[in-house]
Write a structure and sequence with these properties.
The protein is mainly β. It has one domain: Beta Barrel (Lipocalin). 13% of the residues lie in helices and 52% in strands. The chain has 2 helices and 11 strands; from the N terminus they run αβββββαββββββ. It is elongated, with a radius of gyration of 20 Å.
Amino acid sequence: MLYRNILWATAVLLTSFAKPVETKKWLISESSSLSVNGTTNINKFTCDIPAYDQTDTLMLSRRNKEIILSGDIRLKIQSFDCHNSMMTHDLRKTLKEKEFPRLHIRFLSLSEYPELTAKPATITGFVDIELAGASKRFQVNYQVSIDAQKNIHLLGSQDINFSDFNLIPPRKLGGMIKTNDKLSVAFHLKMKALN
């Protein structure tokens, strides 16, 4: 009995320290983008970061049944453009751009290993989003595909709230125009496989 327990414990330890069976590296392209859609009590608005200004890599690994998507993207708050100078200024101020100049998205996992085909596959995954000094974990809905030029497309969407990050939505004209707490965030990462 003791011998069987020792063998079982050894097997558990070996599998827990096992290296990923398969690892892929994806280089994020500058043509990647992020948009935030929101509403006020009067209208709708969209704020975009139309391009990614640095070179980062995501790593996709499969370890037993666990699918790990790891890597980070850091987006400049100053890059947000709401297509209205006053609204752009208000959003950047609300997000505390001077204290916290970047929005940070850390990728953690996927629900399943994506099969890269022209037809988008729908999967989910977890990310940590850090904004204005606060961090929160979200489950994100993704669509993953590959095009004829071998570009990998990872489209993600998630609803968040200003209050998730201890932020108060912007208000104008003595509070007559109020931005709603809920925002819909969508990003499109275009990537190339490095291996």
